[in-house]
Structure formats: C-alpha cells, structure tokens
Amino acid sequence: MGKIIYGSEVSSELREELRLEAEHLKQEGKRIPKLAVILAGDNPASLSYVKGKAKACEAAGILEETFHLDGSVSQKELEDLIHQCNENAEIDGILLQLPLPAGLDENHAIEQISPHKDVDGLHPLNFGKVHLGIPAFVPCTPLGIMELLKRMGCDCDGKNAVVVGRSKLVGEPAARLLLNANATVTICHSHTKNLKEICRNADILIAAVGKPRFFNHEYVKEGAYVIDVGINRLADGRLTGDVDFEDVKDLCAAITPVPKGVGPMTITMLLENTMKAYREAVNESGGL
Length: 288
Ligand SMILES: Nc1nc2c(c(=O)[nH]1)N[C@@H](CN(C=O)c1ccc(C(=O)N[C@@H](CCC(=O)O)C(=O)O)cc1)CN2
Known about the structure:
Layout: E1 3-4, H1 7-27, E2 34-40, H2 44-60, E3 63-69, H3 75-87, E4 93-96, H4 106-112, H5 124-132, H6 140-151, E5 160-164, H7 171-180, E6 184-188, H8 195-200, E7 204-207, E8 225-228, E9 232-233, E10 239-240, H9 245-248, E11 254-255, H10 262-284
Parallel strand pairs: 1-11, 2-3, 2-4, 5-6, 5-7, 7-8, 8-11
Antiparallel strand pairs: 9-10
This protein binds ligand LMY7XDAE.
EC number: 1.5.1.5, 3.5.4.9
Function: Catalyzes the oxidation of 5,10-methylenetetrahydrofolate to 5,10-methenyltetrahydrofolate and then the hydrolysis of 5,10-methenyltetrahydrofolate to 10-formyltetrahydrofolate.
Keywords: Amino-acid biosynthesis, Histidine biosynthesis, Hydrolase, Methionine biosynthesis, Multifunctional enzyme, NADP, One-carbon metabolism, Oxidoreductase, Purine biosynthesis
C-alpha cells in the first residue's frame, strides 16, 4: 500500500506554526495580520469555503473580514470595494472568492487587487513572475500541492509530471511550479489524445478534472506520486476525488485522499500567503 498523505495533518502542523507567530506579534504589541475575503452572491460551495477560511484565520490568530456582496453587485461596486481594501493599511491580503456570479468580469476584478495584497496569486504580475521564476505570490492550491509532494518525499527533479487540467487556479500554475522544480511536465486537458498512455508514464500525476473517480489503475504507473485535486459531491452527499482511491492506492508510492487531502492545504496556503504579505508590508514600512 502506498503512503497516504493527509493534507489535514500537514495543515494542522503549519497552522500551529502560524498561530505561534501571530501570538508572538500580539504579545509584542504589534499589528496583527489581516485578510479581507470578498464574496459576491450565494453559491453554496463558495459560502462554505469562505466560512472555512474565516474559521481557519480565527484559529491561527489572523484577523479576517468577509465582505459579502449581493449577487447582483455591479462590476464598479465590486471594484470600488477592492480599491478600498487596497487603500486600507490594516489589510494585508485580499481574496476574491471564485467563481464570480455571471456577468462579472473575473479577470478585470482580479487586476484591481494590489499585487502586494494578492494572496491568491492570480494578479497578472504575480502570475507572470511565477512563470519567470521570480519570487511572488503563488496560487494557494498549487502551493499546497508542492508542499504535499515534499511531504511524500518526492524530489521532482528529472521526474515526468503529468498535470491533467489547465485552470488558472490549479492546473496551469501547478505545471509551472513543477517545471520550476525541474520536472519534465506535460499538461493534459479535454482535447488531449491518448490520455491514458500519457498518465501511465507519469512519475507524478496531478488530477484536476472534476470527474469523480476518473483515474483508475489503468492511468497510474507503479510507484507514482498521485495528487488528487478533485472535489466531487456524490448523490449520497459524500465527497470523492478525481482518482479512484481504492483502485490505485496499492499501486502508487504515495497518494492524497479526498476529503482531507489538497482541500485543507488550499486554506493553509492562504494563511501562509497572508502572513507573507504582512511580513512584506511590515518590512516595506520599516517595521511597526
Ligand atoms: N479565489 C479562490 N477561489 C477558489 C479557490 C481559491 O483557491 N481561490 N479554490 C476553490 C475552492 N476552495 C477555496 O476557495 C477550497 C476548496 C476545498 C477546500 C476544502 O478544505 N475541502 C475539504 C472538504 C470540504 C467539504 O466538506 O466540502 C477537503 O477537501 O477535505 C477548501 C477550499 C474554488 N474557488
């Protein structure tokens, strides 16, 4: 049986380190890091993720304010709020929960976020820097994926990595990080031919297609490191990943489960990025 790496356990460890750092700041009478979360509309999954983020901030001693806008909010109202958060020196990080309601321009809204507060790593400046190998804010899920690979004991250098999915939140930046770590990277998507063969050649397989239990043993090479990014709700209400966990777990070197795998790491990396934004703001202002 391959090693099962729980993102929930890694998260507990990392969140405790952040909590101690925030507690130390409090004891020293310093300003406390703060995250602003902007949610437009009432998408049930987004509401639940935003609640999870607020709870995680509270537990880590990071301040958080959720701005819950009506689903009918205009582009201008949304962007005015982003500008206010940019101007607010108490706010270190800004997260715009995605997806936005239909009719709003996601890319234009993200571009309004100050790159210094872009803890989601989606602003074109941060996105571009990551692609140039320049230190920047990195999107949270790909950052979590790299941490999980590290915890699996996987050295990416020289390995064949296959990323299935090319979204701007996950697949595309994950592929870039793997390339930056000297893996040989293939990105697959809905138009890819011979998906099975390509995946079977992967030393590292990142599954992010949103199809429940799609990747069975026919897609997985013996000894592969498998990261399951899928979060699919079954008819009975249970969550399952894109990987057929039971079918694959004995074949691979290590695998992440769903739930308790990549999902919690997304929130943990958001906390890490918020702390990073805080540290940079403090350094920039010459200390507080
Ligand atoms: N602006 C952003 N929007 C979205 C992002 C993002 O990184 N930035 N990612 C996803 C959703 N997401 C965070 O926003 C997220 C998804 C899943 C989890 C998580 O902890 N999942 C748990 C299961 C939770 C459940 O029971 O439903 C798990 O996998 O164990 C956290 C955050 C889309 N939008």
